[in-house]
Predict the 3D structure of the following.
Amino acid sequence: MNYLNMLNDCLKNHKNLLIDFERKELIKQSVSNREVFISKNGALALWTPKESTGRSPKDTYIVNREEITNEIDWDSPNNNPLYSATFDMIFEDALKMVENKNKIYITNRVIGADSSYALPVRTITDKAMTALFSDNMFRPVPDDINKSAFYKKEFTLIAFPYDKLDKDKYKGKLRELSDGSVSDLIVVMDFARDIGVIIGSAYLGSVKKLIFTVMNYKLPGVGILPLHASANEGKNGAIALFLGLSGTGKTTLSADPERALLGDDEHGWGDNGVANFENGCYAKLINLDSEKEPEIYNAIMHKDHYVDHGALVENAMMYPEGNFDLFDSRLTENSRGSYPLTFLTNIKKSSKGNHPERILFLTADANGVLPPVAKLYENQAMLWFLMGYTSKLAGTETGIVEPVSTFSRFFGEPFMPRNPDVYASMLGEKLKKHGTEVFLINTGWSGGPYGEADRMDINVTRTIVHNVLESDLKDIEYIEDKLFHIMIPQSFPGVDSKILNPEDTWKNKEKFERRALQLALEFSAHFDKVCGNKNIDPEIIKNCPGK
């Protein structure tokens, strides 16, 4: 089945194609179509059905075809295979939806600021707000797109966020729900045929993350390492990358007034250096504070005429007079804001930079057993990259909280579909080639676990980050932690040496040892479960905590 020919024939027969409308016109149509409301400050507010307040991982699929099957880690819980015959049915349903829509919006954009691997993306949708989101988040097509490794290899996304699949038709083919019926939404990628379909998921992040998952699959094939990371640049042109899961401080610490932001979420690292995937930001809004996060707050909450604003505020509480309450989580904890990078004041407009001099892996260790800063040599860095560790907090009615270890390899597991050895080995090769240094920064607890001790002082963390990025650290002495296989500094600029070794901050040394060993064993067990049969270099395995 030639999907693109069928789709193009369908589009040729449609009488109302709205192709590459200017941003202002997409904003106007989003309002006139009653897809969004205008807030008091001019941003556009929208609310999705309850099943669309976030991604739907169990309804997200990869079409399993012979050409790509050996490249995908099908053991990952995020890589759900879909039979090609089922995808044929879904695609035919999507074509019927195209035929029956009064309007079809089409945007042609690219992913990637580096023209040598910018991926052309065509988004086809019936919603002006979805087209506007693609305009916010994806980049304009560069004049030299012919230089791209993906020139004339466009990826097409069909997105009908408010339509639903026929449950009966897909019985036994898609996810079964608790009531015995079948899910009526789908997010599916066909890497081999360069096409994706979203039906029934109105969460705007489904559009972004589908396309970036495609990019994270494609880039290693052309020698580019994709990274779920933010990036900024110092005044001397030195690039830093920040990798970390939610709650580790990635956005906060990379938004440095003295360093220009390349981007806050997805980058590629190739022969030319680092380049942002995106044209915009898709920020979490819950509890967003104007004093703690002034750049993000102002990007969304600044006042402007709605036609010139166009920030999309998704699932945040808004009162009848049009004011937002970002501290009200009754709708969802996952309220979001989409806006162009140009809404921020301190950015590098090209979104490109040199090879990174230093990389920061951020973790919020609620066990309190990791140091505030440690250096990672090449194999150590590859191991921690594979593990993507942080901890989240599981609340109880009594308020007694135990930290729960969370591992998301490459700090973005759901969006890294290839076998893990591919991404890890590419990182190692680039670290060696460019002499990039890697540091582990613990933004979590010190002196004990959550509930018994305090979280690391943000000012101490900022001092550490500043000196990691700006200071000459050549003369620092490091001692290897034999349990976690990380290099702990014996002194560090601007930091009290008494807090550098985590054991020294605990009053009860035996409790520290038990807690540290417990975490190390969790590392070891998780590694064996997800990477034990994945062709990982033994020199990397040696650096796994607990081994």
Summary: The radius of gyration is 23 Å. The longest helix spans residues 509-531. The chain has two domains: 1-222+278-345, 355-541. The CA atoms of residues 107 and 131 lie 6 Å apart.
